[in-house]
Inverse folding.
């Protein structure tokens, strides 16, 4: 198991709160069966699925959940770049039989957060993900971790995500605000339904500050309230009350 230094910028408070809400919602999704494996995808590239995957995993880890994030985007892997791992062995190494599980799991500087990079890019991603050894990987990760997240390619581009989603407990679609047509989203939804994937919901990403003002107003209301309470206690203390 490789030890890696995690280098992600700290989220601002509203963003961190949003991931806490997403984390909590996922915990309540498993009313009939506990959600342990999650597929995260998007309709098109650039919608923020990898950023969402990383920050959700970190949020879970900080809450005490032992989580592993797997870069299953074998066509355009991003974890190696985002998390600056030096381990060249990854998912494809394991599936092809060139590495064992312990060789590909990276232990980050954040407690409870682990990750697996893509590994060498293969010429046949869909075939590799359909291999029996990939299914075995999911089973083994479930026994080692409390939660497993798969960052997958956009389903609007290739079929890889559907292969993975059919084997996990749930799927989240990340959609960039005002950038994807309704028809495109509908096609992705139908494709997931064809493989009996359980769609848990949608993450609306990259919302403008103007569109987000209602939520920010709600958030700032509580921030201001806490500030006022603090000032009230300070005044009481100064007056000797």
């Amino acid at each position: 198991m490789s030890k890696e230094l995690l280098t992600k910028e700290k989220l601002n408070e509203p963003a961190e709160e949003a991931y806490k809400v997403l984390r909590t919602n996922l915990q309540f999704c498993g009313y009939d069966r506990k959600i342990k494996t999650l597929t995260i995808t998007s309709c098109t590239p650039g919608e923020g699925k990898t950023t969402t995957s990383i920050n959700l995993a970190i949020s879970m880890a900080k809450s005490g959940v032992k989580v592993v994030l797997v870069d299953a985007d074998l066509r355009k892997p991003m974890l190696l770049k985002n998390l600056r791992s030096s381990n060249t062995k990854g998912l494809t190494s394991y599936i092809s039989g060139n590495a064992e599980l312990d060789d590909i799991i990276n232990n980050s500087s954040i407690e409870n957060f682990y990750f697996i990079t893509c590994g060498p890019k293969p010429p046949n991603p869909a075939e590799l993900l359909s291999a029996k050894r990939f299914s075995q990987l999911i089973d083994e990760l479930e026994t080692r971790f409390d939660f497993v997240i798969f960052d997958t390619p956009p389903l609007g581009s290739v079929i890889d995500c559907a292969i993975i989603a059919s084997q996990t407990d749930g799927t989240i679609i990340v959609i960039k605000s005002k950038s994807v047509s309704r028809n495109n989203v509908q096609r992705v939804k139908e494709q997931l339904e064809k493989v009996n994937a359980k769609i848990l919901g949608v993450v609306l990403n990259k919302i403008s500050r103007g569109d987000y003002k209602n939520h920010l107003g709600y958030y700032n209301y509580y921030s201001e309230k806490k500030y006022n309470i603090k000032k009230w206690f300070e005044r009481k203390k100064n007056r000797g009350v």
